[in-house]
Design a protein that fits this description.
With about 300 residues, the chain is mainly α. The chain has helices at about 5-10, 20-25, 30-45, 50-75, 80, 100-120, 125-145, 150-160, 160-170, 175-200, 200-205, 210-215, 220-240, 245-270, 275-300. Helix 3 runs parallel beside helix 9 and helix 9 packs antiparallel against helix 10 (about 175-200). About 50% of the residues are buried.
Length: about 300
């Protein structure tokens, strides 16, 4: 895999003036925001009590750990980021931050987030946080992403850890209810990313990343999106079946999941970029609303 001379120089160049905003961009803040939210929901739902200050510390550690993972991911993928239109303006391929500085920044944040979580909260949550960071960096970024179209399927586990981490921060353990929150995000990830990959397949092909549309074709990808979307309905009902949520959540998440399935069928039938873009955008809203419903259901259960 090669890039042109200008791109190569940009990737390796030392920054003239790295701004704080560039370092913040390394943390993938948009991705981090959803990670932090799902982690906070896990903390809110967990049985038991936690001091409000420690709850804030736990959520902050999840945020910093997620940001550290994104930072190291950007360091490792700076060569392919320089090729793809969606990522070529990131701080590393644009030459605003030196690669070594980015790597050191990511490692420092990863270590600090795990240590603070362990010392201030508990070591079960810290171990889960360390596992999530390691999985994202070594399993997804280094091992899977450039080798197999199953990169998103297996690698999705990294983004599914936060609600389990939040839950463990309160309870100190892992239960079926927290695993059900993990499963929702784990099985949501493939249709979410494959929808993006459908209309960005040219970028992934140019970068040599074997996303499913590049390797198996658009038709196979659309079938897989439908399959995983159908699985979301029973998976979203699991917290209710396990007693971690009530009827309000069950009804609301069921409706959202039916819309999710409808979006997937629209992608399959229409076979155009517009439907894939809609599915990608709705998938983000879907996950946010499902977890927001968990919070609303628990909050209202104490009032009604």
């Amino acid at each position: 895999m090669t890039t042109d001379t200008n791109m190569s120089a940009s990737v390796g160049a030392a920054p003239l003036d790295a701004a704080p905003a560039d370092y913040f961009a390394l943390l993938k803040p948009r991705v981090m925001s959803l990670v932090v939210f799902t982690g906070a929901v896990g903390l809110f739902l967990a049985p038991g009590d936690i001091h409000p200050v420690l709850a804030v510390v736990a959520v902050l550690c999840i945020a910093v750990g997620a940001g550290a993972s994104g930072c190291i991911n950007m360091w490792y993928e700076r060569d392919v980021d320089a090729i793809m239109a969606r990522t070529r303006h990131r701080p590393l391929p644009a030459g605003r931050i030196a690669p070594r500085s980015a790597l050191e920044f990511g490692i420092m944040l990863a270590g600090a987030s795990v240590m603070v979580m362990g010392v201030a909260v508990n070591w079960t949550a810290a171990a889960l946080l360390a596992g999530a960071i390691a999985f994202y960096v070594f399993v997804y970024t280094v091992w899977l992403k450039r080798r197999t179209p199953q990169n998103i399927v297996i690698g999705g586990a990294a983004g599914a850890f936060p609600p389990m981490i939040g839950w463990a921060a309160v309870s100190g353990d892992v239960t079926l209810a927290s695993i059900s929150l993990f499963a929702i995000i784990f099985f949501w990830t493939p249709p979410h990313f494959w929808s993006l990959a459908l209309y960005r397949s040219g970028d992934y092909e140019a970068a040599g990343i074997p996303m499913l549309p590049v390797v198996a074709g658009a038709e196979a990808t659309r079938r897989q999106i439908v399959l995983y979307s159908v699985l979301m309905l029973p998976l979203c009902l699991a917290p209710w079946l396990l007693g971690a949520a009530g009827v309000l959540y069950a009804v609301g998440s069921g409706v959202l999941s039916l819309i999710f399935i409808g979006g997937a069928l629209r992608v399959f039938v229409r076979r155009n970029d517009e439907s894939a873009r809609w599915m990608f955008k709705y998938s983000i809203l879907y996950l946010f609303l499902v977890f927001a419903l968990l919070v609303a259901d628990r909050a209202l259960s104490g009032v009604l």
